[in-house]
Amino acid sequence: MKVADIVEKLGLEICCGTAGINREIKGGYTSDLLSDVMGNAQEGNLWVTLQTHKNVMAIASLKELSAVILVKGYKPEEDTVTESEAEGIPILSTTKQTFEITGEIYELLKQK
Is the pLDDT of residue 112 over 80? Predict the structure, then answer.
């Protein structure tokens, strides 16, 4: 499944990083603690978080994540947008709560 598929199926907003919209998704990781994501997320994971600052992109790039999904209607900060565009890693947004969107992503990935 590609990032574009998740965007379409879950009605996510693409905030930035559209060059990476066709990245392959291999799994997911949900956490707001950057050190936790750095230590445990896997390459190709979608990362679900409420963190909006540019360090999110440093971790996403380091771990080679497929995309970042911001919850509760959060949007990336301006410098985060710049990093997302430079790295080609999409930042997506949803108004849903973390628990809800994580469950929906899990169900979609389970079907593939």
Answer: no
Interhelix angle 55-62/78-87, nearest 10 degrees? 20
| Mean confidence (pLDDT) of the chain | 97
C-alpha 39 chain-centroid distance: 16
pTM of the model: 0.96
Residues with Cβ within 8 Å of residue 96, at least 6 apart in sequence: 71, 72, 104
> What is the CB neighbour count within 10 angstroms for residue 112?
8
User: In the CATH scheme, what is the code of domain 3-111?
Assistant: 3.40.1390.20
List the domain boundaries for the chain: 3-111
| Per-residue pLDDT band at 78 (split at 50, 70, 90) | very high
Contact at 8 Å (CB) between 25 and 46? yes
Q: Quote the tokens at residue 82.
A: 């710049």
Which 3 state secondary structure label does DSSP give 8? helix
